Amino acid sequence: MAQKKVLLLGSGLVTRPAVQVMTDAGISVTIASRKLENAQKLAKGFSNVTAISLDVNDSSALDEQVSKHDLVVSLIPYSHHVAVIKSAIKNKKDVVTTSYVSPGIAELDQPAKDAGITVMNEIGLDPGIDHLYAVKTIDEVHREGGKIKSFLSYCGGLPAPEASDNPFGVKFSWSPKGFLMTAKNDAKFYKDGEIQETPGKDVMRNAQEYDIYPAFAFYAFPNRDSSIYKERYNIPEADDIVRGSLRYRGYTQLMRTLVDMGFISQDENPKLKQAIPWNEAVKEIISAKSASEKDLKEKIEELTTIASQTERERVFAGLEWIGIFSNQPITPAGTPIDVLCATLESKMSYGPKERDMVMLQHKFEIEHKDGSHEIRTSTLLDYGDPNGYSSMARLVGIPCGVAVKQVLDGTISGKGILAPMSPEINDPLMKTLKEEHGIQLEEKTIKRCDSEMKLVGEYGLRNKREVWRVSLTLSKIRRAARQLLTLDEKDPRRLFEGNALIRRLVRVGVLDESRMKLDYVLALNLEDFLERRLQTQVHKLGLAKSIHHARVLIKQRHIRVGKQIVNVPSFIVRLDSQKHIDFALTSPFGGGRPGRTKRKKTKASEKKDEDGGDEDEE
User: Fold this and answer.
1) Average pLDDT, stretch 214-238?
2) Count of CB atoms within 10 A of residue 297's CB?
3) I need a labelling partner for 231 at 20 to 30 A (CA). Which of 193, 195, 397, 601 fits?
4) How do strand 118-120 and strand 94-97 relate by DSSP bridges?
5) Mean pLDDT across the stretch 553-571?
6) How many helices (H) and strands (E) are present in the chain, helices listed first?
7) DSSP string, 375-403
8) Any idea where the RNA-binding S4 domain is (predicted)?
9) Where does the pLDDT of residue 615 fall: very low under 50, low under 70, confident under 90, or very high at 90 and above?
10) What average pLDDT score do residues 297-312 get?
11) CATH topology agreement for domains 5-127+387-440 and 161-354
């Protein structure tokens, strides 16, 4: 068989691992870059690789090169993919990209089918490897007659912990602009069976702590439109569907402040084209009274919401680290985000011996056909090699290279616009990635009943239904908070209903007074509510020997709250009532008339004493 020839467009970081996979398979690769020296640098060290200069905006030059090859790999910015695919359709050549299928690409499905070509997309890390294992689990559950009730997927490309030595907890090997722009992306996802939409300016505000491994302090937030995966993954039964990003603690608070300050804006400002001092630039962007640090900080606190003194200190320390209160000159760039990027790029690049890290996790809540539930996770934790490929480059480039091989050898044979959304495409990809490259997700099953039964035992509940009732209450409260967060901060409804909800939660002790914000309402969990049950409080106050004994005391009317006897263990105790929990005045434990058994024993004891006394007298 004649040697296959591939035209690879691009010379970025992920390109080299893809080239290595292809050349190891005996494929001839032509690397095309606008700058010839970039392509030559990338080709160095490989045999059977040619470097050329090519401007993809030159359609005739692009057509000429596409026509000479069997397949085109497009690793250039996604905005060029449509032009590349059109050229491939014209020349009847296959295509592989690591990018999402955009509306423009989707429109080329029928023309690609008519040309008889395969256009394989979304085969990197995210998207790519994430799809492989999402579809795998979903297909397994459906084949067994089960349902996916919840699907959460979060991914983060981060520095390894020892290299996360700046306030953002991120570093770059490329321009940070695209990375920072994610902070303004609107989010759309399913929660409790309903579509939720969060404006870009509020996405960071709604970031949640997210546990994967105890050693990592992650925050997670939804990214772009996750709602489409109800159809793409064929999970119409799912109540929750969220795909999002992971960051280290501290990032979301700092980015939220920069968003509120207007630093992610791409609006041109003539003054930012000059090398003015940082504090003057900030004054211009946020419209502060002066460029003094005091006035800048006062204005920043007007523009953003800082939840606590600790968070305030962390945020301002981060801003000082950037240098925005200093007299140092900015790098003239014209827009707030470009000025910020110029500084961050110099401050947040990887050092020679530093490594990156990728964390990816899917979490599925599964309902089996017998009605039982479980939680299943698929997790990938991968570190880069300081002397080799970064984790991100490896996990994007290798799947791309494997897909190229499988398109060329006919393993992936479908025509038109494809993505890894079916076992037919995915299974061979997963097999090769695992067996030849050691890339796989660790899959674990966590029985949901175990976690629920733990709560049943810990809080002395009668059965799991009591857990479910609390879960339903919590779900309704979170839904109300999310709906209010979509409104403007000064919207009368948000102010009135939000304050009422927060006051109610503070009153019952579920929400701490230092966390009186809707953001913190979303972070409430089942334990917060179970702690406020009368049964729990009776045990904690020492009125009962155990949590189960507390339930018995309450049911037998031995406990009062204030003057009222309460015989409902699930009664929620308000903060102002907590100190009034005691034994009922009618209870023998509280000095009342002894119970029947005790009276009987006392009477028998008294009679025995009397009989003993008579004998002594004789």
Assistant:
1) 93
2) 16
3) 397
4) parallel
5) 93
6) 25, 20
7) EEEEEEEEE--TTS--HHHHHHHHHHHHH
8) 532-596
9) very low
10) 84
11) no
pLDDT tens digits along 16-48: 999 999 999 999 999 999 999 999 999 998 989
In the residue annotation, 488 being an active-site residue is answered as no
SS3 562: coil
Residues 6+ apart with CB under 8 A from 87: 59, 62, 63, 66, 72
User: Which run of H or of E encompasses 158?
Assistant: strand 147-159
Q: Which residues make beta-bridge pairs with 120?
A: 96, 418
DSSP string, 15-84: HHHHHHHHHHTT-EEEEEESSHHHHHHHHTT-SSEEEEE--TT-HHHHHHHHHTSSEEEE-S-GGGHHHH
Choosing from 94, 114, 126, 338, the catalytic residue is 126
Question: CATH class for domain 532-618?
Answer: alpha beta
Q: Give dist(CA 375, CA 151) in Å, integer.
A: 10
- Top CATH class, 5-127+387-440: alpha beta
Measured in whole angstroms, the distance separating CA 45 from the mean position of its chain's CA atoms is 38
Query: Residues, the chain, total?
Result: 618
Superfamily covering domain 161-354:
Domain 3, Saccharopine reductase (1.10.1870.10)
- Domain boundaries in the chain? 5-127+387-440, 161-354, 459-530, 532-618
Q: What single-letter DSSP state applies at residue 247?
A: E
CB contact set of 108 (below 8 Å; sequence gap of 6+): 82, 85, 86, 89, 119, 417
Strand ranges of the sheet holding 71-74, from the earlier edge strand across to the other edge = 49-53, 28-33, 5-9, 71-74, 94-97, 118-120, 416-418
